[in-house]
Amino acid sequence: MTQPPLRVIAIENVTLAREGQGVFAGLDLRLTERRVGIVGRNGSGKSSLIRLAAGLIAPQAGRVSVNGVDVVRDREGALATVGILFQNPDHQIIFPTVIDELAFGLEQQGRPQAEAREIAREMLARFGHADWEERLCHMLSQGQRQLVCLMAVLAMGPDWVFFDEPFNSLDIPAALRIEARIAELAQNVVLVTHDPARLGGFDRVIWLDEGRIVADGAPGEVLPAYVAEMERLARAAPC
Hints:
This protein has 239 residues and is α/β, with parallel strands linked by helices. 35% of the residues lie in helices and 25% in strands. The strands form 2 sheets. A 6-stranded mixed β-sheet has the order 6-7-8-3-9-10, with helices on both faces. A 4-stranded antiparallel β-sheet has the order 2-1-4-5. Helix 6 links the parallel strand 7 and strand 8. The longest helix has 18 residues. The chain is globular. The mean pLDDT is 92.
């Protein structure tokens, strides 16, 4: 029986600076696990890491590949390999109607418009929202818009899906629904979050601080140390 190809994110000796500020210096990281969580304080490099892996920003030195695809130089290959959801769906949605939003990425992959729209309809039906086809995106709730972004990403068939604080600005029911959707995905997932409780069942957790890997391992090893450090910092901070 033929084994499926290994899904690998390879970040090799990467140096990255943004707006004149250093983010990573010689970062090496290899991800193969199905569920990877990333934690750290604001400004630690979490969002920059997944943007690198998605090919949305280019390092000044080093190489980033996902499943062998150079995601910076091969944008077509990147679209077929990785998908990313940002904190705010309004920073991601660009079309007025749901069907147009879902079809856009497929058309970027070279699919004819009619085929792209048919795949988009199938995705809506899969999630039980066939009636959303002509809905206006701006009339949907925050959680519903986040789901539209997820469906648009999944329609393109990536092997990896990156989530950048997907629970921000969501009420508890909407956050739980998105969390359940993430748990059901067949794709490999990398989740950036400030909430350690979301990562208890993950395979691996990486703790970043100022662009450095402080800890990298199983949730039961990394998260208690991370929480203890955050609590220490809270006690040390002036009121």
